[in-house]
Amino acid sequence: MSESPQVTVDVPALSRLLDGEHAEVRNLVRKNLVEQADVLDDQVHLDATAFRERVKDVIQHMASTGATGLGFPQEHGGGGNVGASIAAFETLAFGDLSVLVKAGVQFGLFGGAVLQLGTKRHHDAYLRDLIEARLLGCFAMTESGHGSNVQHLGTVATYDVETREFVITTTTESARKDYIGNAAAHASHAAVFAVLEIDGESQGVHAFVVPIRDAEGHDLPGVRTGDDGAKMGLHGVDNGRLWFDGVRVPRENLLNRYADVSEDGVYSSDIENPDRRFFTMLGTLVQGRVSVGGAGVSASKVALTIAVKYALKRRQFGAPGSDEEELLLDYGLHQRRLLPRLATSYALHFAQEVLVAQLHQASTDPDYPERDRRALESRAAGTKALATWHATDSIQEGREACGGAGYLAANRFAALKADTDVFTTFEGDNHVLLQLVAKGLLTDYSTNFEELDQFGVARFVADLAVETVIERTAVHKLLERLRDVLPSSDDGSDEPTLLDPDYQLAMLRWREEHVLSGVARRLKRGIDGGTDPVAVFSQVQDHVIHAARSHMERLVLEAFTDKVAAASEDPNHDVLAAVRDLYALSTIEADRAWWMEHGRLSSARSKAVTREVNALCRRLRPVADDLVDGFAIPPEMLRAEMLEQGY
Amino acid sequence: MSESPQVTVDVPALSRLLDGEHAEVRNLVRKNLVEQADVLDDQVHLDATAFRERVKDVIQHMASTGATGLGFPQEHGGGGNVGASIAAFETLAFGDLSVLVKAGVQFGLFGGAVLQLGTKRHHDAYLRDLIEARLLGCFAMTESGHGSNVQHLGTVATYDVETREFVITTTTESARKDYIGNAAAHASHAAVFAVLEIDGESQGVHAFVVPIRDAEGHDLPGVRTGDDGAKMGLHGVDNGRLWFDGVRVPRENLLNRYADVSEDGVYSSDIENPDRRFFTMLGTLVQGRVSVGGAGVSASKVALTIAVKYALKRRQFGAPGSDEEELLLDYGLHQRRLLPRLATSYALHFAQEVLVAQLHQASTDPDYPERDRRALESRAAGTKALATWHATDSIQEGREACGGAGYLAANRFAALKADTDVFTTFEGDNHVLLQLVAKGLLTDYSTNFEELDQFGVARFVADLAVETVIERTAVHKLLERLRDVLPSSDDGSDEPTLLDPDYQLAMLRWREEHVLSGVARRLKRGIDGGTDPVAVFSQVQDHVIHAARSHMERLVLEAFTDKVAAASEDPNHDVLAAVRDLYALSTIEADRAWWMEHGRLSSARSKAVTREVNALCRRLRPVADDLVDGFAIPPEMLRAEMLEQGY
């Protein structure tokens, strides 16, 4: 048990460690947030129409500070630094989340489509105005009938060789563009994703820049815009719908980085396979998922900071005869509710840091290997899923831990909860994303994995030996070296301490390999046995999700462990190691049934994990306030009246 | 595995079974809901001020139909039927939840205080006007500084023998009344809970009827009312704050069923112990908790009905070569996400039915044994906790399962989620309630258990032999008879089928007894070892919660099992048995680590539980629509645009 010695925290050093190399950018954004702090009041008091305008103003003000172009090329007025741009976005997520999402739509999604899918003519035409928020755009991908399955969009673009124009049409009501941020009111342009048909033959989904409103904000001919109306949250974002009735745009409006249509209507692309082409295009938009994942981590930090500080102010019940009641955080249960979640926020922070560094490298290295790029996309998908679910969970627990006060809009949970709720859905439904992760693992990010749908993966795996699937995974190689670390459940003697990071990692690696090979075996057995691939996949699906989650949790723990190891000289080394232990052991505890079922955890040791989690909570209780202060969230962003009151 | 035979559902018979003996009342409320269905639109489109007035109008209209007085005595214009009044409230929870909560405040809390804590003079003066919603009142118990620990309220009432008045004062800012429904705008009267001091001596908390507003709605002298402002949800309820500055009310305004003060200022009560007196008073308000728990079950039904119906309309992804995509509910994962939760809604429905029947009996039987009354209060607390957490969880999963469409206010999740969020807090914080349940178990509902605070419980238990604690519990006696049913994990042979209800119950009973005795042992060991009771309790607290949850889950399964057994001739017997199996096994699965840790589940059998849960999901998939139709929620209440669209 880890009752002693007491850990201490050097808060400024902790903030420096967390802020990392982009501290300057983060502090610039913090300053912007504080200057615009009244937007948090406006969120409560303005009606939706007025608040949308307010949020637009904030975005345009932000653009004037240079904080919005960090990820764009310098020749177009940007900062040329993808890592910095994500750091800015993560920090922006401490503030109002309508501002965040509107910024994400404008600079990340619309800007990202123009930058990544377009070529010089689009960059020259749009980027500078876009970065400065003079040109507002939207990202018109999702349709009412197709969110996750983007390949089957119903919007169609044909080419009219006479006029050298593309003609864009919403073919059915379920093909209307839906939930599109910036579409209901503010966007003058849309990046429209549509199936390109040339001479009646589909070439798959492509993106087009389509003007949708004139200077007065009226719909352009053939375009119909609508409003999604009231939403659960994000009241400052004008989500809307778009219908296209034979809307014509010049041939040059095709975002033609990966494919083009000649004046006389001949289609060409360097990527022959239409599926691969589609996934290559989608892959360039990975930054959006990385950004949302980072925002999820930030939102969880805000929620847990408020909940921890409230638990250090609020007292309830007391020992008989004592005049003073007990602080909430002195209750073991309250520690249990907040501190493992706090450890998870730390863990995800460091995992996100690794992901951002990889993305930054990929964005600056034209020779970044294709396979690594696919692994990066997969990691981005998985991190987004874990981080946004963690946000939902932490905000919910934080609200409940603050009781009735947490329910009032004067405190921040109401907005945090309502605004973040859709994070688990947009930029990819989390369950669909985890299936993408599993697909990558099962196919070893092979060149054709993106083209395989879920049923195709089942067939693909069936064609391999299961051993092949497993031996190619990175974890398998690591595991060979670590086999000795991991005792079987029968072997009670000489067990490594639960606080041994090698042991913790070995546990997560062993689970990952075992779950993954189990999935491969079940898929293979089903297909070999002649079962319909659809039925096989459906029956194995929860196992597939477990494999992906096991993989992601291993990556997260590795990132945290590496960080602690690299911080051996840091004044906060010991406390970070304790937070890492709490993350690792509460993660193992949550799935301890699985390890017991598979003979890797004895019942006695399983109980010891629970005891150690409790002991770590007690150990970290005295530094809980320091740990949340380390996030350096501007106090104005906590906006929690309840923290100002005496109880 | 339970792949066959296929179960079928007789939907009208299922609705009759679920509606039970109060079908007529439920149908009356359904009719009212449909007539007032536009309140669901108003919830989205009206601003808070206008919506509050709208909700008040709905309440007053309801009162005119006779649906609001069911639980009050007939001589005062009521229906004299507590069971019917709760059935009405449960059904009302299919509709807008501001209406529900405002009705709960007016008729349940304020009305309940006058009825249960007052005597004939109060009943004569207030009940008829109150039932007919001509007199609007609020229930002023919670303060900013004291929600859970009501015994330590800061509001004080003294008696002025000169004027024969009570003088009520808010002694500190944290003693202001807070979150009080009806207080911000509509209430003319408040039932104020305050510590009564006579000659400088505290007699504990008592309730007083205090006029707070005049006929024009202005604060009366000495009273200050405030508005809690915007909240996460329940925008139609005017939650507010109250401050009292020496407010004087006649002596007769003390709600004097359990204690009185004579004209010359002498305090008297039939219950000598002030703690016991306090808990006796509180106990009479049990109906509020029963009502909120029932409303939680109803809210989960609405959410799961929408999510199931959407999953039977919406398609996404498809087998290669197939023109049609797959329905969401044909995915194994989607079944996993929705169907065990649906089974839990069924289980909680039947558990709630038992609870309501017990409450009804207690309310009509003046000789209802004291110990049973305490057990009933405990059961109400635990059911409320489980049901409201289930509501939060089902609504969240349902929203996510409906993707972006679930986020729009045009569908019902936005309101459902925001409005129900505080259910886990009001009428008692769920974690505090589960501790109350555990306290009852540990002390066998003994006459003094209510007076013991949590630290006192530790001391109490320490004074007993652990065996005494255990032997007195009901489950212990049941277990004796069932010991044979339960195989140990070593004994692989002759294991009963997982679908044997005796086995399922024996598992839950064994866990309850074992966890409870573990808590008793740990408390005793800590106290005997000289550890501070505060520290002992804090360290054992998560274990305490586990004991309470284990107890409640056993009661829920028993209620479901009894219902199925009694329905042997019902056309829906087999499908109900399958739903019961799904509830039982998914409950066991969720905590299977615990049974493995304690040698009651082998790893092979644990995996079999998971397989059986999946098989039951597949088995129930074809009747999922029938199972939600069985709830007989008026289609207007689903108010989900997404269910009307084609995809």
Largest sheet of chain A: 6 strands, mixed
Structural class of chain A: alpha+beta
Highest-level CATH class of the largest domain in chain A: Mainly Alpha
Q: Biggest interface: chains and residue counts?
A: A-B, 84 and 83 residues
Strand content of chain A: 5-15%
CATH topology of the largest domain in chain A: Butyryl-CoA Dehydrogenase, subunit A, domain 3
The second-level CATH architecture of the largest domain in chain A is Up-down Bundle
Oligomer: homodimer
How many whole angstroms does the radius of gyration of chain A measure? 25 Å
Task: Please give the share of residues in helix of chain A.
Answer: 40-55%
Any idea what the CATH superfamily of the largest domain in chain A is called? Butyryl-CoA Dehydrogenase, subunit A, domain 3
* Total number of helices of chain A: 23
- The general outline of chain A is globular
The chain-level mean pLDDT of chain A equals 93
Number of domains of chain A: 2
| N- and C-termini, Cα separation of chain A | 34 Å
Low-confidence parts of chain A, pLDDT < 50 over ≥5 residues?
none
DSSP summary, beta strand count of chain A: 11
Features:
Butyryl-CoA Dehydrogenase, subunit A, domain 3; globular; Butyryl-CoA Dehydrogenase, subunit A, domain 2; three-stranded antiparallel sheet; 647 residues; homodimer; alpha+beta; 11 strands; six-stranded mixed sheet
